[in-house]
Specification:
243 residues; mainly alpha; Helix Hairpins; 2 domains; three-stranded mixed beta sheet; 75% helix; binds zinc ion
């Protein structure tokens, strides 16, 4: 096994402990509550102002509909009055028809007003619910932000020690190899480096089981560290009896 492979395997062994701590912190109740509150609070203002502007539009439409409704009512009354004094048969027929038209409009406007009124009520309820959640989430944030900080602080010593070990080791590792490793680590892939026992004559990736081409296997045999095309893990070959 080449020196570089030994080093990166050693690096990963130490990094594993760091990853365990990270996973423990990220998976904790403290982190989950903190993050969900932070996510909510980062979007709630926008949602509230969207609701406000929606409510404004609905209110304007409602006021206009109510005004139209009243105007139609007024017209209906006028027709009614005219009918009482009208003596011409033909004109009476005409007025009757007009009156019925206005009545149909009134009915339609009534439905519109009711629908808008319901929409306003729904918006009001939604706003109320959101405002309530907002208060609850603020409280959650204030409670869990310091708790998470406390949890992180309790691991600080261990983390600092591991990080300094990694940093020291990193100095001896080939830069390109280190970059590849770091990139995958950021992608939350772990473990990253896998050894393939060449004595078993298998050409499958030890992580994702994808079969690898002959040239790939030859490179492994000659001591190279290669990237699996499917899972992008870093693969090296070894033979248990050879040092
Ligand atoms: Zn793979």
């Amino acid at each position: 096994m080449s020196e570089q492979i030994k080093l990166i395997v050693e690096y990963q062994e130490i990094d594993k402990n760091l990853k365990l701590i990270e996973d423990e912190v990220n998976g904790s109740e403290e982190a989950k509550k903190y993050l969900s509150a932070r996510k909510f609070l980062s979007t709630v203002k926008e949602t509230l102002s969207e609701l406000e502007s929606k409510a404004q539009t609905v209110t304007e439409n409602y006021n206009k509909a109510v005004k139209d409704f009243e105007e139609y009512l007024e017209k209906a009354k006028e027709y009614e009055k005219t009918v009482e004094t009208c003596e011409n048969e033909e004109e009476l027929e005409y007025l009757k028809k007009k009156f019925l038209d206005v009545c149909a409009q009134i009915e339609k406007m009534e439905q519109t007003v009711n629908a808008l009124s319901k929409e306003m009520q729904d918006l009001y309820n939604e706003y109320g619910k959101l405002a309530k959640s907002n208060n609850a989430m603020k409280a959650q944030y204030n409670e869990y932000a310091p708790k998470l900080e406390e949890l992180k602080n309790s691991k600080k010593g261990e983390v600092t020690e591991l990080k300094s070990k990694l940093k020291k080791l990193e100095e001896s590792i080939d830069k390109t190899l280190m970059e590849k490793y770091t990139l995958r680590r950021k992608d939350k892939k772990f473990p990253i480096v896998f050894g393939l026992d060449l004595s078993k004559k298998s050409n499958h990736c030890p992580f994702c089981m994808m079969s690898m081409p002959i040239s790939f296997m030859e490179d492994l045999s000659s001591g190279e560290i290669k990237e699996c095309e499917s899972c992008h893990r870093l693969i090296y070959g070894f033979e248990p009896n050879k040092k």
